[in-house]
Structures are given as structure tokens and as C-alpha cells.
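User: Reviewer 2 asked us to show a designed sequence for the structure in our supplementary figure. I'm pasting the C-alpha cells here. Could you produce the per-position amino acids so we can include them in the response letter?
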């Protein structure tokens, strides 16, 4: 974790916070542990989310299932908007304040999109034109969503713009799902332990690693004839989970 979080380790050790507790930890519990800064709480919770995704989604997640999830989130938001408009208490044509549950649905949609982007943003998908274009489209639509909810206009106007984005996102997801004949779409990830031997201090491991916006550490390539290259098991697109049994 970031250096700014090292100060809290003793508090976690003193209270004997185990793995099960950590996976369910809340903002209030973090505050009780002395993590009072919201930014630091978010860093910890985001790291926990990554562990949850690794623990629960490893064997089932693939590009197809993530596309289905994003499609479902987009359709849920569309249904939420149409349901609000059928309500006898709908005031969207005069109100300019978006309801909290509406904003929550938008956040959920962006979260589902980020999970899909985490796959599209790495090899082998990043090198395939069709998937690269899809990735750029999803990013653009997410940026539109975040811009729309901050615009000063009536709720009704905001909803219309978001409905358009949701329908476009659904079309993108349908396109990915239609590629079901491509084995990459249904390929899930798996964990593998790689041991590098005969490492000379002067040459290092020979891996190029990129940290993504959501905290993943992805290999982008290896140096020719380096320990990483010689083992023949490390490839661009692989994610680094642990180094010397320490989760990163």
C-alpha cells in the first residue's frame, strides 16, 4: 500500500484485524482504527475491493461476463429513469437536483465499466483494433456520464442525456457479446506461481510493469535474455499479484 498508510499498520495489528474482517470493513470501522482522512480510507477500501475481485471473480470473470454485467447496469439505470417518470410525484421538469439513489446508480454503472476496461486495457485485447476501438468508446461514454451529472440543467434534461449514453453502452456490450466465437471473449484468468532463478544484482528481473488507474500492476513486456524472458512464462498483459509472498 501507499507510504501514507504505513502509519496505520500498528493499529490494525493491535486490534488483531484478520482477513475476514478486512474484507467487510466499513468507513466507520476505519475511523475507529484511527484512519480519519477520507482519502486514506478510500485507498484502503479500493485495495480491499481488488482483493475481493481476485478472490471471488478469478474463475468466473471474463470479457463476456463483464459485458453482461455492464449491459445489466446500463439497462437498470434506464429502467430506474423510466420508473421515476411514471411516478405521480415526478418533478424532473422543474427540479435541478439529482436524487442520491440516481447518483448511486450512475456510480454503479461506471464501476461496471471500469471492470470491463481493466480487461480491454491490457494484452492481448489492447493490440486488437476491434477491442481497442471498443475500449475508447467505453472510456468516452464514461467521461460523458461524469460530465452530464455535473451540468446545471433540469433533472429531465439530465435523464435524457443519460438514457442516450446507457443505450449506446448497451450497444457496445451487445457487440462484444456477439463476438462469442472469439475464444478470448470467454477466456478467464488463472493464477500461476513463477520462480526466477540465477538473478544477477546487476541485471535485475527484466520486467516492464505499468500500474493502472485502479491499482493493478500489469506487465507490458520483458527485456530480451533477462531472467523474466528466459523463464518463458511471463508475458505482456500478465498481472503481478505477489512478489516474494507479499501481496502488491
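Assistant: Here is a per-position design you can include in the supplement:
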Amino acid at each position: 500500500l501507499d507510504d501514507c498508510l504505513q502509519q496505520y499498520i500498528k493499529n490494525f495489528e493491535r486490534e488483531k484485524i484478520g482477513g475476514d474482517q478486512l474484507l467487510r470493513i466499513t468507513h466507520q470501522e476505519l475511523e475507529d482504527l484511527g484512519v480519519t482522512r477520507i482519502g486514506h480510507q478510500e485507498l484502503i477500501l479500493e485495495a480491499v475491493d481488488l482483493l475481493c475481485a481476485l478472490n471471488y471473480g478469478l474463475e468466473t470473470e471474463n470479457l463476456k461476463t463483464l459485458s453482461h454485467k455492464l449491459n445489466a447496469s446500463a439497462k437498470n439505470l434506464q429502467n430506474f429513469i423510466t420508473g421515476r417518470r411514471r411516478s405521480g410525484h415526478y418533478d424532473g421538469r422543474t427540479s435541478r437536483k439529482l436524487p442520491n439513489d440516481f447518483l448511486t446508480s450512475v456510480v454503479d454503472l461506471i464501476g461496471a465499466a471500469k471492470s470491463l476496461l481493466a480487461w480491454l486495457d491490457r494484452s492481448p485485447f489492447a493490440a486488437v483494433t476491434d477491442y481497442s476501438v471498443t475500449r475508447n468508446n467505453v472510456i468516452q461514454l464514461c467521461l460523458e456520464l461524469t460530465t452530464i451529472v455535473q451540468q446545471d440543467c433540469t433533472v429531465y434534461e439530465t435523464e435524457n442525456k443519460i438514457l442516450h449514453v446507457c443505450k449506446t453502452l448497451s450497444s457496445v456490450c451487445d457487440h462484444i457479446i456477439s463476438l462469442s466465437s472469439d475464444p478470448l471473449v470467454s477466456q478467464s484468468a488463472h493464477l500461476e506461481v513463477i520462480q526466477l532463478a540465477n538473478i544477477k544484482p546487476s541485471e535485475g528481473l527484466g520486467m516492464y510493469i505499468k500500474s493502472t488507474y485502479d491499482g493493478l500492476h500489469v506487465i507490458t513486456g520483458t527485456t530480451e535474455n533477462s531472467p523474466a524472458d528466459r523463464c518463458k512464462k511471463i508475458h505482456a498483459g500478465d498481472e503481478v499479484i505477489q512478489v516474494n509472498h507479499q501481496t502488491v
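For the response letter, you might also mention the following. The first helix runs from residue 9 to 14. The mean pLDDT is 88.
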